[in-house]
Amino acid sequence: MQSFHPQVSFGSVRAQFQTVLGFFSVRFYRPTLQLFQSCFAALVLIVGDQVSYSFNYLDAVGLLAKPFMKNGGQLIGRWPTEGYEFDESEALDGDEFLGLGVDNDNEEELTEERITGWVEVIKDKFK
């Protein structure tokens, strides 16, 4: 079986990722959002490499989250971009990411602190 790594490379979506997005959109995403637009929520935590992929850091988040929100989904867990070093990202909305990005390749020492801070931000949303 072929493995699937949903990464975006060099500014374009890999063919495998496009296939999964298409399947997800047709089979699950659209019908679910049509039924549950007012109560459907999501949060995103993603691992990325902001040095090697600085021109498309966390793009997969934006490719999933933006259509989700456009169709009425509520996104929980935005995270500030302060402290990250990257050039471009589809995961941006103003000065925030559409989820938490961690970079264990270059900033492993910040991962626990970022996750702990993010959990503090989102935990009240689940009471």
What does this structure look like?
It is a single chain. Helices cover 39% and strands 17% of the residues. The chain has three helices and nine strands, in the order ββαββαβββββα. The chain has a three-stranded antiparallel beta sheet, with no helix packed on it. It is globular, with a radius of gyration of 15 Å. Residues 1-11 and 31-39 have low confidence and may be disordered.
Number of strands: 9
H/I helix tally: 3
Shape: globular
N-to-C SSE series? EEHEEHEEEEEH
Summarize the topology.
Blueprint lengths: L7 E2 L2 E2 L1 H22 L4 E3 L1 E3 L11 H12 L3 E3 L2 E2 L11 E2 L2 E2 L2 E3 L5 H15 L5
Parallel strand pairs: 3-5, 4-9
Antiparallel strand pairs: 1-2, 6-8, 7-8
List the main descriptive attributes of the protein structure presented here.
17% strand; globular; disordered N terminus; three-stranded antiparallel β-sheet; Rossmann fold; alpha/beta; two-stranded antiparallel ribbon; 127 residues; 3 helices
Give a nutshell description of this structure.
The chain contains three helices and nine strands.
